[in-house]
């Protein structure tokens, strides 16, 4: 079954690029991604640009409206994701716990619903 591991953290809490903490975090992401790929579990994943670059689209009364930024103001923002093929939720939880930013943010795990094909 596929699980989407969504990585949330307050952008202000992320280690700053150019610091030892940032380098350590990025090394952790690289090592996790390499392990997941070697095990054939990685189906996709990426980091997202800062929340300031987001655009939200809503359709009301048949008309599309766009807003700069995310729809909801929250303390933590979606910063990236891993799409994994895991045998069960327990395995997905195991890998979510290895995501470096889980130490200062949170990881939301959601099963992916197959839409045919």
Coarse morphology: flat
CATH hierarchy: architecture: 2-Layer Sandwich
Helix share, percent: 10-25%
Computed over alpha carbons, the radius of gyration is: 16 Å
Strand content: 35-45%
Q: For the largest beta sheet, what order do the strands appear in spatially?
A: 2-5-1-6
Order of secondary-structure elements: EHEEEEHE
Looking at CATH, the homologous superfamily is: Dimeric alpha+beta barrel
Count of beta strands: 6
What is the count of structural domains? Answer: 1
CATH topology: Alpha-Beta Plaits
- The poorly predicted ranges are none
Protein structure class: alpha+beta
For the terminal residues, how far apart are their CA atoms? 15 Å
Give keywords:
single chain, 117 residues, alpha+beta, Alpha-Beta Plaits, two-stranded antiparallel ribbon, 2 helices, 6 strands, 35% strand
Summarize the structure.
By secondary structure, the chain is of the alpha+beta class. It contains two helices and six strands.
Q: What does this protein structure show overall?
A:
By secondary structure, this protein is an alpha+beta fold. It is flat, with a radius of gyration of 16 Å. 23% of the residues lie in helices and 35% in strands. It has helices at 20-38, 89-96, and strands at residues 2-9, 42-47, 55-60, 63-68, 77-85, 106-111. The strands form two sheets. Strands 2-5-1-6 form a four-stranded antiparallel beta sheet, covered by helices on one side. Strands 3-4 form a two-stranded antiparallel ribbon. The longest helix has 19 residues, at 20-38. The chain has a single domain, classed as Dimeric alpha+beta barrel (Alpha-Beta Plaits). The protein is built from two helices and six strands; from the N terminus they run βαββββαβ.
